[in-house]
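Hello again, I could really use a second opinion on something today. I've been puzzling over a protein and I'd love to understand its fold better. I'm sending you its amino acid sequence along with the backbone structure tokens. It would help a lot if you went through both lines with me. I've dropped the whole record in just underneath, so have a look.
***
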Amino acid sequence: MAAVKILAGALAPECATFTIARGSAGVDLRTVTSATITLVPRSGGAQLSWAGAIQPGATAEQIVVRHSFAAGDTGVQGRYSVVVTLVLPDGQIRAQCQDANIIHP
């Protein structure tokens, strides 16, 4: 899977979109109530955390989470691991990590 490229200083309508497929038969992704997108820096430092908007059309097997950028979201350039945390009525699950690079425009 290729790394997501995000421009430093990006603003809406620019966004980051992540499609998450179900990894366990016991989880119905239509029941997700909220999501958080966390970027963990590969070289240490502060994590970035964004609210994720659940997009219409989720199925039991797949959900799309999107974050539209606001001022200050993407100011720190570098390599990150992305983790999407999905909140369900009975707990939360973390989606598989993906690489992201925040780069100079």
Notes: The chain is about 0% helix and 50% strand. The mean pLDDT is 89.
